[in-house]
Amino acid sequence: MGEPGEARGIDGLPRRIPPGRPGVRMASFGPLPGQVGTARQWCWHGSGLSYDRAYALLVVLSELHTNALRHTASGRPFGRVRVEMERHGGLFRIAVTDDGVVGGGAGEPSVPCVGGAGGVGGGGFGGDGLGLRLVEELSRAWGWFGRPGSPLTVWAVVDPRGEGVRGRVPHPRPAA
Known about the structure:
single chain; alpha+beta; six-stranded antiparallel β-sheet; globular
């Protein structure tokens, strides 16, 4: 909570958004890095799962939310990140929508991809893709929709039981 406004949010953020359909939770979070932790708490409490069962879900949310702050206008002053969580039986669908490309940037906008290859303009969000590699390993499926340069929604389907995931779900370390 080192930045002003981080404890209580900026402009009343986070803010719940009426979902429009049953079984969906939606909220809008602000541009400060501390909002990622707030989103994790919101997701964990909304999932109704124990922390160890929710771990993969929380890691995936953290990666998607952090990418939105790091690589789009969502991380700029007055930026927003919209998070949607929906439960289908034992599966959870997480969707993170950003504010789109940062204005005045050079080159073409990039799109999310694992390993930083294959994105528009060679971008892959300009990182090494390690976070999306983790998302890929911990989820049954993931993808994105939207038009590059405009707000994008990156989504993932997570099975907290670890069934059908590509990789082994790491277990959280106990607090020291």
